[in-house]
Amino acid sequence: xxxxxxxxxGTSVANPERxxxxxxxxxxxxxxxxxxxxxxxxMSGETNRLLALATEVHPEPPARELDVLLATGxxxxxxxxxxxxxxxxxxxxxxxxxxxxxxxxNIHGRARIVDxxxxxxxxxxxxxxxxxxxxxxxxxxxxxxxxxxxxxxxTTAVAMAAALEADECQxxxxxxxxxxxxxxxxxxxxRLDRITVEExxxxxxxxxxxxxxxxxxxxxxxxxxxxxxxxxEEGPGTLIAHEENEMEQALISGIAFNRDEAKLTIMxxxxxxxxxxxxxxxxxxxxxxxxxxxxNVGADGTTDFTFTVHRSDYQKARKILEGIAAKLxxxxxxxxxxxxxxxxxxxxxxxxxxxxxxxFRTLAAEGINIQMISTSEIKISVVVEEKYLELAVRALxxxxxxxxxxxxx
Length: 409
Ligand code: ADP
Ligand code: ASP
Ligand code: MG
What we know:
Blueprint: E1 3-8, H1 16-31, E2 35-40, H2 46-57, H3 63-87, E3 92-95, E4 102-104, E5 113-116, H4 119-126, E6 130-134, E7 137-139, E8 145-147, H5 152-164, E9 168-173, E10 194-196, H6 197-205, H7 213-222, E11 226-230, E12 238-241, E13 254-258, E14 261-270, H8 275-285, E15 290-295, E16 302-310, H9 314-327, E17 332-336, E18 339-345, H10 355-365, E19 372-376, E20 379-385, H11 389-399
Parallel strand pairs: 1-2, 1-9, 2-6, 3-6, 9-11, 10-12
Antiparallel strand pairs: 4-5, 7-8, 11-12, 13-18, 14-16, 14-17, 15-16, 18-20, 19-20
The structure holds adenosine-5'-diphosphate (ADP), aspartic acid (ASP) and magnesium ion.
Residues 9-12, 41, 151, 173-175, 178-179, 181-182, 184, 203, 208-210, 254 line the site of adenosine-5'-diphosphate (ADP).
């Protein structure tokens, strides 16, 4: 008998029929004799609906109250799923994040889990109950409701699995596992049988939203056995592996993209010590995260400085940058919020050269201009115009031999 944590995402619990189907899947696992904790998301579209509702009332909703509102989405689905389990004759109890003591820090909207008190959950399990937990939410030390950022139910599930030392954490979603790229954009994408934690972390951080990056970090840190599967189709899914595969390693395991970025440039700033820190310090004081950064080689004692931010921070960052430009007597500020970042990811890059040149050649052949480049040991990212997203990702997918029908996984 194993202890399994299952998580069902928004589309998996999108309506009463789907909730009944999930109850059926839970019942099958339970009937096999396993102990079970189930984490659920809000019904698909619900978190967005609540967000829109908030902004109708307040253009910049206070973070604490927004979390109170957003957390209601998951409270609906835990109750409904638990009712569906009761109807099937299973003992089950639903809990909000607060009730099972998912303790977080106090950063509303992107809180981090610091501790989970598993006493209540263990007691229920020992009484033969299925425990149904609301994803995406927790509570801070002062008792305020917090949320974990978009996609946060994945992290709730993995953190629960870590706290309970579960035998497996299963993330049920609307695709059959982790693919070489988003199957909705790249029809030739292939499901991977396994992917290393390290690669999955890069893929998730670079925009593959199938798992929240924090959940992969948790899985890596606490060695949680993690699998991504479909709640719609039977299948083996994808194992997130803690050991690198001993079999021959694919050069590139996947291609991720992120449409949520925008680019800003401050032109003609003095090329001298302290300027970068003045620019980026000013932006980060505005509570804005900066992603890629490029500084041009200086000429005539001045230089240009370009960086990317989350698209929702674009206007705010631009205003801040204009203030900084005035102080530094810079030549001006430009920006573009119609860009995407595309990244190729693979641990095979460590031992192979030529990945960057293949990437650049492929984009050039399609007439796609590269605006920014950044690299790390296992990934290369480029920024290109948003309109080229599909073309670029599909061309790279083919160029790196990832298309389905191209040999073994
Ligand atoms: P859930 O509501 O179940 O949490 P999400 O929408 O958050 O589901 O994540 C699943 C989606 O992630 C898929 O529908 C797919 O479009 C997208 N996705 C992006 N990149 C990948 C990838 N490499 N592999 C699988 N899915 C991906
Ligand atoms: N409901 C939240 C969201 O839409 C959390 C999740 O689904 O993981 O982001
Ligand atoms: Mg998700």
